[in-house]
Write a structure and sequence with these properties.
The chain is mainly alpha-helical. It has one domain: MFS general substrate transporter like domains (Growth Hormone, Chain: A). Helices cover 80% and strands 0% of the residues. Helix 2 runs antiparallel to helix 10, helix 7 runs antiparallel to helix 8 and helix 8 packs antiparallel against helix 16. The longest helix is centred in the last third of the chain and has 31 residues. The two termini are 29 Å apart. 50% of the residues are buried. The C terminus is likely disordered.
Length: 413
């Protein structure tokens, strides 16, 4: 393991930095400024939620095309471009003056933060690594929980000390002065996968069929996979976005939610590394059915719980699913569809994921407004996650049969 880390430090570091910097476009980070933004721009909860949802929806649609940039050989330039665009959005947030400008700023934050930063990192790891793909994805994905553990508390303190607009100026400075040049330096040389043709995984990768995006769209199993891929983003975003409402209804302090983030981050890290090892040993296809069950357990506990420990346990179980999903789905796409068009294919999946996260605050908020309690919604979410786990088990069996049955036929690479 130590040799692997040393030999691949530059590429793994770049993957980690990309996922860490995606924080500036993630829901949990933007939500920290929600009160100040609504107060200064005179927006209600519903109006701010609508703007956020529309901006995220638009970013999901545009990501289908912009995501193709991840298929370019020079990922250093792509990473710099993404960093500059995200910095531009952060700068725009520092000077936002009205709802229209806010819509545009959030659109760019979501497209290049949650969308492209994550997409470029996972596409690069999936393309560059074969035998150690699971470990590479786990290490690069470590940026997610690291930012989730560090930034909320730091950001709240900086808002108090500097003012919320100045915090966004600091974010823009970090992206331009640090992230962009470091990423360019780390990624100035592309990496060629080093799996040997004498190695079983290396031979399989060389012989694997390289699917195009139109072919993937005609694959029935792709749509079954999406049932599992989209659920965590929809449900996780919904729980995070409506956390204030949830704790108010249950009579808890918001600190119960905020203080559970370090536990969530630690568990997701441990799970991601364990999952990476398991993928390298058995394949992502075999781990797939396990991804949703922990979140289902967590949603059930939160929906039925009356004590603050329910939130802590829920976040712990969500952390397990987060660690599983980030690694499993990062490795699954190259395993079943190849790497030649991986950026294009993953752009489609990332776009759908962003779309599901865009709809969550609006859908769940509308249900709350119509008198359907969040506890009841959580029970329905838990039931869906258990049912979807059964579907993913069947999908896993089909994928394994397809891989071993010759449908992933040799193609020139």
């Amino acid at each position: 393991m130590a040799r692997f880390l040393i030999e691949n430090a530059r590429w793994l570091s770049a993957g980690f930095l990309l996922t860490f910097m995606s924080a500036f476009g993630q829901t949990y980070f933007i939500a920290l400024f929600g009160g100040e933004i609504r107060a200064e721009l005179g927006l209600s909860h519903g109006e701010f939620g609508t703007i956020y949802g529309l901006a995220t929806l638009a970013s999901a649609i545009v990501l289908i095309w912009v995501g193709k940039l991840a298929d370019r050989d020079n990922l250093g330039l792509v990473a710099v471009f993404v960093s500059v665009m995200l910095a531009t959005a952060a700068l725009g947030m520092a000077f936002v003056t009205g709802p229209i400008m806010l819509l545009a700023v959030i659109f760019v934050l979501r497209l290049f933060g949650q969308g492209m930063m994550t997409h470029v990192s996972q596409t690069a790891m999936g393309r560059w690594f074969v035998a150690r793909r699971g470990k590479a994805l786990a290490i690069s994905g470590f940026g997610f929980p690291t930012s989730e553990a560090m930034l909320p508390t730091l950001t709240v303190a900086l808002i108090v000390a500097l003012g919320w607009r100045n915090v966004w100026l600091c974010a823009a400075g970090v992206l331009i002065l640090f992230a962009a040049p470091v990423l360019f330096t780390l990624l100035r040389a592309n990496r060629t996968p080093q799996a040997s043709v004498d190695d079983e995984k290396g031979r399989a990768a060389l012989e694997q069929r390289q699917w195009t995006r139109p072919e993937v769209l005609r694959d029935p199993l792709f749509y079954a996979l999406m049932l599992g891929f989209l659920a965590p983003s929809f449900i996780g975003t919904g729980i995070f976005f409506h956390a204030v409402h949830l704790v108010d209804v249950k009579g808890w302090s918001i600190s119960v939610f905020a203080d559970s983030f370090p536990l969530y981050a630690a568990i997701s890290v441990g799970t991601a590394f364990a999952t990476g090892w398991a993928i390298d040993r058995w394949s992502a296809q075999r781990i797939l059915p396990l991804t949703l069950l922990p979140m289902g357990i967590g949603a059930f506990i939160l929906g039925t719980g009356t004590e603050p420990i329910a939130m802590v346990l829920c976040m712990a179980f969500i952390g397990v699913t987060a660690g599983l999903q980030s690694t499993v789905f990062g490795a699954l796409s190259p395993e079943i569809y190849g790497v030649r068009h991986l950026g294009s294919i993953r752009a489609l999946m990332m776009s759908a994921m962003v779309l599901s996260s865009a709809g969550s605050p609006f859908v769940l908020g509308t249900l709350i407004d119509r008198g359907i309690s969040f506890d009841s919604q959580l029970i329905v979410m838990a039931s869906y996650l258990v049912a979807a786990s059964g579907i993913l088990w069947l999908v896993s069996l089909r994928l394994l049969r397809r891989t071993s049955g010759g449908l992933a036929a040799p193609a020139s690479v």
